[in-house]
Protein 1
Amino acid sequence: METAILPIGQARAAAPILPARDKGGGKGGVMAGLMHRVAERGRARLRLTVDGVEIEALEGDTLLTALLTATARLRESEFGDGARAGFCLMGACQDCWVWTEAGERLRACSTPAVAGLRLVTGAAPWP
Amino acid sequence: MAVIVVGAGPAGTRAAARLVEAGLRPILLDEGSRQGGQIYRRQPENFTRPPAALYGSEAGKATALHRDFAALRPHIDYRPETLAWGARPGELLTLHGETATALRYDALILATGATDRVMPVPGWTLPGAYTLGAAQIALKAQACAIGRRPVFFGTGPLLYLVAWQYRKAGVEVAAVLDTSPFAARLRALPLLAARPGVLLAGLRYTAALLRAGVRVESGITPLAVEGEGGRVAAFRWRDRRGREQALATDAVGMGYGLRSETQLADLLKCRFAFDPVARQWLPELDAEGRSSVPGVYLAGDGALVRGADAAELAGRLAACALLRDAGHPVDPLETAHLRAGLRGMARFRRGLETAFPWPGAQAAALPDATIICRCEAVTAGDIRHAAAALDAPEVNRAKQLMRPGMGRCQGRVCGLAAAEVLAAARGVPVRAAGRLRGAAPVKPLPVATRMPEETP
Ligand SMILES: Cc1cc2nc3c(=O)[nH]c(=O)nc-3n(C[C@H](O)[C@H](O)[C@H](O)COP(=O)(O)OP(=O)(O)OC[C@H]3O[C@@H](n4cnc5c(N)ncnc54)[C@H](O)[C@@H]3O)c2cc1C
Ligand code: FES
């Protein structure tokens, strides 16, 4: 279940594209997402880039959904206690911040996913 | 007269509607992008599930609230995606996008709702561990499950409701583990009978889970969420007979009832009192929703967790109180009727707290290494150290020393548990551990925030 995270800047056109739909099983594959879609799978698709890897999400997804259906973390705790992937999903805990490659901070559970966003989930400075 | 209502859930929506009936045009603002609040939270516009799939037995009420809001909208100044992050007398500080604005008010209704009440457990920061509320939001607003075979633990009606909603959505539920003993539910029956319909619905969810073969246990003690490869892999607990149990799982949903969002009332210096039923400090309010500060009214779960139906009544009642205080005629029969409706809700609330008590005592048993404050990774041991060696008598002092509750969430998640850890370490009742004080901004602002221009 190890996630294949490419360092920033290594994204290539040939980077693997992860499916927005679950292919079932949840095991194997490049990355196994934490979250699983149970309905509403027929929405328009969009693509964003996470740690240099392109992922596919669906229109109407929050950033949190977009990332966690494909991967298993949003950020690293700046206190060295491991990865975090949000907790409350309602804008209360502030545990789901992600950074854009440009250094902008976004609260993943309350920010809609938009095509072309480039995000990083590795250690980033807390401004 | 400038009136602002904060929060567009059932309480805020009903409050705004009553103000409009009296000829006012209030500002109604909400941090969220769509009206509805928590229970009647809406899915994004391009989702297609019908209300019955989203709200179950509450679909009728949800649709009514959404429809009434649509009719109300032309008559109010509705501001979605607007956070109220600070307040001072006569002025509310808001944020929309990256623009901060100071809004003047003559009267303010705070209908800010609640968040999950959480007791930490070792491993609860692992990816895959969420609140029960989060598990429900994932399903309701994003059509996602937090895992393929989640364990739900904690206590309260949401525990059974969320588990049942997951089952209904076709998700396999590994177990539903309640910290409350079954006997507590029997003790609470006379109080819960104040709302037989709600009581029955609760029993139905549990029966349906059992019928579906879901493992349901009472009287458990959570021991740890265990991880592997940086995500949840198992949950360990002690059953009611004291035997250790474990289940492999890819996700946990945890929660112990709700806690009110009271930061804005705190910033406005509303008086707080310790509520022995909820074991929380709550803003004082009179029977109609007046706070101790003239012109500031409180309604819904943000003042006292009594549920959605009570929130609708309390919102309307607070608006009536505001109108009467401002010299508008209000039919005494209307307020009497609303107050009578709320009395049964108050009885039911006592029933819920009796049936599903906050397990404050668990805090004392948490291993020192357990993270309490997720924001700054402050552990139970750190707080105990502050309590003993540094002689911190209450949470604000401990916070200065050790920083629990100093993080980005302002103690929303850890505040109650930190107080329990501190009180237990000092051998005092939790009310003596005090309460964490709110500070502006109540939620982090973007770095690029442009500070207030005055606007009317
Ligand atoms: C996650 C969750 C799930 C729940 N699920 C159920 C359920 O399934 N069934 C049930 O019976 N009850 C449920 N409850 C309880 C139920 O939500 C409440 O009883 C009901 O919604 C209370 O209505 P309210 O208007 O008081 O608050 P809410 O409905 O919570 O509305 C409060 C609103 O205020 C807004 N707000 C808060 N602070 C600010 C601020 N500073 N600035 C701007 N806006 C702000 C919020 O965005 C929110 O929209 C749930 C509660 C939670 C927290
Ligand atoms: S998950 Fe808690 S703020 Fe986003």
Protein 2
Amino acid sequence: MGHPEAAARFAADVPRTHWHDQALWFMRVKRDRAAAQIPEWERLRELAQEIKAHTLSDLAGYLEQFERNATARGAVVHWAADAEEHNRIVHGLLAARGATRVVKSKSMLTEECGLNPYLEARGVEVVDTDLGERIVQFRGEPPSHIVLPAIHIKKEEIGALFHERLGTAAGASDPAYLTEAARGHLREKFLGAQAGITGVNFAVADTGAVVVCTNEGNADMGTSLPPLHVASMGIEKIVPRAADLGVFLRLLARSATGQPVTTYATHFVGPRPGSELHVVLVDNGRSDLLGRDPFRRALSCIRCGACMNTCPVFRRSGGHSYGVPVPGPIGSVLSPARDPARNASLPFASTLCGSCADVCPVRIDLHHQLLAWRGVLLAGGQVGARKRLGLRLAAWILATPRRLEWAGRISRLGLRLLPAGLAARLAGPWGRQRALPAPAAESFRTRYRRTHGRP
Amino acid sequence: MAARDRILSSLRRAAPPGPPLPVLDRVGVSFPDLPARLGEAVAAVGGVMIRVADLAAADAALRALPVHRDARSVVSLVPGVGAATLDAAAVRDPHELAHLGLCVLRGALAVAENGAVWIEGASLPHHALAVIPEHLAVVVDAAAIVPDLHAAYARLDLPGRPRWGLFLAGPSKTADIEQSLVIGAHGARSSTLLLVG
Ligand code: SF4
């Protein structure tokens, strides 16, 4: 199923679609307020972009420097070419220590690699400890948003879910009450865990640190009790200097949720006494993407989710409609690189309004990339016949002023003469949920000629 | 090893040209009254800041708070502040801290812009002490306030002395259920910053 079909399913529930739209817009508003409080916000975005662009020009060098420094402080660094190798390494570490109870904090990379099903198939219980992730895990779904995994679910539904899974009172839906129940449930899981897995927000080349940011404290809980910490990261998460974190931490939480900073930003350097720290560096298509202009810029993403919160398509279609672990504008740029045939509809799930690029803290030119993907997919024969025909027709019409003038004349005539239902049908998907406009009495061109004479 | 070499060589092959690493010394903010701004920032992240003259006053202020009065067990990592019932250094296994009521931490510096406090890893006998107690109190010297994170990283000099630690900003929180902010997700349910001097 492509994005349009999945989105239509989501949007069939109109009140819910509006509710979802508003919930995300609320995040966008909070982000705007937070950004406005920083006078040098735009300068910070430029710096973030430059640091990332510089890092991508010598990713290999910085990864080696990170490896040297992390190893010197007692961490063990692993390299995985793809998802399968990553999963094998993580499972190997757990199996060698007999760990079958694992707590995990948020990591889009492990979603991308399908780590949970891999470990579960091998007898390991993996508990997602971020509250939103635990909710979607109970429901047997993937997260619908990278920062707000359960943004698509109503509190009454969570109440019913917790009643069934955690024995909370029937009908209870107070967020504080439900959060307290989850706290108790997850406390037990933390205390019983034999290993903790985390994602990585930033890895620092000049200190060998991996930095993990959470609001709940679940990464710290999950790594400070068991004797094994496995941190999985995409190779693009590296920053050259600890000082660069000043730029990124000022941008990240403000862009994500409008907070000045996350509650916890823990800099792990080597294992704590009596425990082990393993860092798994994962490629899984990233080095290929690095070689592809202009798409390589997508590797700068710090996974703040701001482009999702602002996207008019995401807000009205829901994260699940994208069918990929990282949805929204950035996901629609990353996913076709991975599997163009399967994800061919995603670059079209955009109005190209550019709002995503305006809020992106690392200034990825997301809408330009989406447009570029459309060209690539079209050339690669990955676009359906109907859309191809439409695009070819549009290109033909838009190629000369005369054809455009005629097309306008025909459509005005059509709007005037045809019954509304038929006109809407002819307008294709555009006519489905809209009233078509009343035809103008004359075109702009005719009017200009009438009032100003020939141009 | 095979993967390592393959990844590194394909990254080298694909490496695009890039700009030089930007110099960061011209970015940052300043505030006329650092302690006042810190107080606002701490409140904004859900914490409470109390200003005291010295450690004795910090101790008195803390003992007067319900989080101390009602705590069944207290760990203090700041000598003289709080009535410790447990010596964390003598605890072998962090699981024993599961029911800790209050922990008094030492903050190495505080960031006025965002209310975060840097906790040196070396000051914690167990990492869990920063997250497992029901409540936290953090003692910071007024002289250790910096305006923003750039100044914080400059002062911490992590490349010169790489070590673990964390920025902690207020109590643990979540908004994963319909975006309603709930304090006390997994970690501390409250966080009190005692600003000394
Ligand atoms: S592309 Fe930009 S806005 Fe979107 S998640 Fe990544 S960093 Fe955030």
Protein 3
Amino acid sequence: MAVMFAAREVRKVYDMGTVQVHALRGVSFEIEQGEMVAIMGPSGSGKSTLMQIMGALDKPTGGAVFLDGEDITTAPDDRLAEIRNRKIGFVFQQFNLLPRLTAVENVELPLMYAGVGRAERRRRAIELLERVGLGHRLHHRPNELSGGQKQRVAIARALANNPAVILADEPTGALDSRTGAEIMALLKELHAQGNTVVIVTHDREIASHAERIIHIRDGLIVEDERLSAGRKKPYTAGDGPSGQGGSGAAS
Amino acid sequence: MSVLDTIRTAIHSLRANPLRSILSMLGIIIGVAAVVSVVSIGTGGQQQVLANIGQLGSNLITVMPRVPRGTAGRVQQDVRSMFTVAMAEDMERLLPDVINVVPVVTTRGRLVAGGVNVQATLVGVTSPYTEVMNYRVADGRFISEWDVSAQQPVIVLGAELAKDLFEDADPVGQEIIAVVGNRRQVLRVVGVMEPRGQAMGGDLDSQAYLPVSTMMDRIMKTRSVSYFAAQARGSERAAEAVAQVEFFLRRRLGSTDYFRVISQDQILETMSAVTQTLSLMLGGIAGISLVVGGIGIMNIMLVSVTERTREIGIRKALGAKRRTILFQFLVEAVTLSALGGVLGLALGWVGARVIGYIGGWPGVVTAGSVAVALGFSTAVGLFFGIYPAMKASRLDPVQALSFE
Ligand SMILES: Nc1ncnc2c1ncn2[C@@H]1O[C@H](COP(=O)(O)OP(=O)(O)OP(=O)(O)O)[C@@H](O)[C@H]1O
Ligand SMILES: [Mg+2]
């Protein structure tokens, strides 16, 4: 399988003037295409920092990250914007939907920045929302949606440009455990469809849905754990895409 | 991202906060309205002035004695004394393109009719005065040639003056006492002039007209006149007429320093220049308010950028490039200012009409002032929008995303 991510001795130092915070102290790993990986560690261990660097939102202080063979630590700003737009789908703990836009308009955003025409954009956004079970909430604004529904909109948005990888930072962090399990089921389904999924979490329970857990502590990888492949852990709520329990998805 | 998408996004953002959008436009609205109405007042006022000058008389040439700079009272006396009725007659007789040279004598005096007592300007003239000044009698008759040659004690009243002295009664045939200095003269009213309104060269309506001979010999005891009001043979002969008058006077008085010839063309030119300068100045002041409006927009845009830091972070995470963000915020600023320009234009047009209605001239809004107002407001939006937009586009995505 092709290597999707290759991190080489990635370091990140936050210079706070008097003190320097070493968030990452030389992290190296590879993630292959189609993998579902959890990056796990306690609070402050550098998980989010790593994800921001992998997602081309931030640049490391040292080392390099290759995405699909391209060094994303030296690319110019405009290229980084393109990489974020085409190759990466972000899912955030706080959803990060634009409050004034409807669900379908939020999903259209990455398509708009990719230069997709209006009609095509709308068609694809509706398709994506239907895929995450929100075909009946197209024109709702974020404040008219439940937490789980918001995260589904965010996942649909992350998928908009068929990204190479989905980066999810604590995607269940703002959700109750049952809704969180539904979201995990959705991410697993996307993985089953061939997407590369990276999930950042401090929760062993969430991490155990992945095939592999990269343990990180104080800015260093302490363990690269491979769980026996596939559905080792049963879903805790619902069972795959067709059985999205209480989410109220239209069939 | 297409230009159309950017504009749509910008308008969407502005519509999310309509009250703020309107308030931030207010400065531009007022600025543009001020520019448009001030320019309109200038143009309308100028047309009014030109119309007034046109009323003054067909091809009027005014000839006045002038005291050269640096000379004392003696010389002045000499020059003035050479402006006589005889000289007027000579000019009329000798100059081929000049007709109707009217010697004019003016003085302030008191007119008494019954119990009413009014201060007025008394003007001694000859009968062609009405033709030269393009002035008409409403009631009775004007000063006749015989009145002048026989020094008749008659008087013709301006419309306003007639009203002041006699209210609604018919003044023609009534007697009036003119008091100038310590001299009194009983005069018979023979006519009332048509109202003329405020015109260049004084308010004709509140003046009284007498035979020039009566004024000079019976009331003022003087031999010289105040000025000559002459008429060119036709507008196409006006320049020649002026040249002939100047030639004649230089010969008679010895120098061009001792007189001044003012033709209608000159007045037109001077007045146009004056009103244009005035419009420009007022327009400039109004333009400053446009700049102030621009600063208002900049202020709002800066607040907006700060408030929407997280939105900017999200957009960047989703693939918006720097220039996309820059363009979005710039379009918002320009949309605000251009829309403000359009609203200001509408307001200015209404203002121009209202002020024109009050001032009695058409409230003209020229294509030029429309173009300048819209062009300027758009430019103001661009200029003051660029800084906030740059600030937005330069935000670091990670920091913007973690903004509370
Ligand atoms: N912008 C920043 N400036 C300074 N220090 C930072 C900044 N961002 C993160 N850090 C520090 O870097 C370290 C790693 O932070 P990071 O957010 O990556 O942790 P995390 O593993 O995601 O923690 P959590 O599970 O609480 O989200 C922490 O000590 C944090 O205080
Ligand atoms: Mg974190």
Protein 4
Amino acid sequence: MKSGSNLEKVLAAGHFSVTAECGPPRGADPEIVRKKAAFVRGHVDACNVTDNQTAMVRMSSLAGCMLIKEQGIEPLIQMVVRDRNRIALQSDLLGASALGVRNLLCLSGDHQKFGDDPQAKNVFDIDSMQLIHLVRTMRDEGVFPSGDKLEGAPQFFIGCAVNPFADPFEIRVPRLKLKIDAGADFVQTQCIYNMDKFKKYMEDARKEGLHEKVKILAGVTPLKSAGMAKFMRRMVAGMDIPEAVIERIAAEPKDKQAAKGIEMCIEQIEELKEVEGVAGVHVMAIEWEEKLEEIIGGAGLLPRPVLV
Amino acid sequence: MITGTPKPIEEVLEMLEPYDNIIVAGCHGCVTVCRVGGEKEVQVLASTIRLAREAAGNKINIKEVSLERQCDPEYVESMRPYVGDYQAVLSIACGAGIQFLAEKFTTTPLLPGINTGFLGVTERQGEWAERCQGCGDCVLHLTGGICPVTRCAKSLFHGPCGGSVRGICEVDKEIKCGWQLIIDRLKALGQMENYGKLKPYKGWSSARDGGPRRIIREDMIS
Ligand code: SF4
Ligand code: SF4
């Protein structure tokens, strides 16, 4: 065991794992996190807490992690390199580990232009690939990147994100390989809607044997409506939602589209379970955490294994 | 070259409010090439200021000069004999040139007439684009001759990020994804093996982050 996290154990035991995500609130109210946590508890092996996603200022990921941890959920801290240089990143890694956070997701972060403060200075001192490498160095060698010995190495199950749908497609598998070389233990993918393309991606990854070196959690997001699907396709760079998917949900009357979205999400998880090399799912029910039980249960993934 | 854009005339006029006897100083270097601070721009700017001040009933006397380079002491010194006869200098050279004048003429206020931009190239007449951030440790040999620091909006060393779509950067549909360009180039050069290597953390101490920089060439110091 590298970190001893629940997620790591569940995956190591060969279970099809489930993670979800919680976006912290745009304010200091801890109750909002606790309410979301109540929908997540018991349904996942770990729960991501996002780090100022889309560059909108939110409660810090670490604070969110502690709040859900208090509620009995294993946290997975997301860390972007947009806002912190290597000094701040190392320090926050040590702090998170000291507070018992055992899972980490290393990200570049959306550009600040999308958020509240487009005038902010960005950092990008190291990139997400190098952050993975930095954490691995600290964890496995017990030293700072500078070479100084750590007074206690941080323990993390190290994750990264991949977007199989960004361009150029042919670089996506080599880039995953690079992340594995850097030290990634697991991967969470961007929301998948284009299953054909994802399967092609997995096929390429399998050819390189990557599925044996890293745990791949396939990302899904239930659609609430045809409108949401179209909006996401238009607004989120690298989001690939095929016409057929939109047509299918749009064919329902408005008040039935949400139910259809959930049905489609469950179907998709069932299909993902059959894809060789997919070790679990990452369910991003954005501001829709109350549906997690229905989705995860519907896909036959409840109850979650309890390991000691 | 160093590029720039003229400051809005309102901003320039506001800076000039306290003065009625000034120099407008251009430069024959980069700012001439990108048509923002050469001899011609000095003339145009001086006339515009004169007209505006006349219309406001608050005339101003302007001496027009253009130095070979405002970033070189020998040319800057040529202004010394008369600079004290004026209340201020409005310079339309780059930020380095403006500061050099300020440094040399310690009792004369120096005002910037342009907003200095970036190190770039002329992509076509009237269009300039950034190419280098002067990071002090060039990696172009590893990245197909395309700069990841400058051309990637996140200065990633292992791009492209998940926001790269059809060669366009997530930041703006007018910006090409630098990493798509790098990969295209590496492919064309048959150097894709460079992509697959983990690159060491960038040392930024040779960039601005190490504090103001200086280059000393012992062989040239007499
Ligand atoms: S790597 Fe540094 S020196 Fe080379 S082009 Fe980019 S910014 Fe300029
Ligand atoms: S889309 Fe390309 S240029 Fe833009 S931030 Fe991502 S990798 Fe960099």
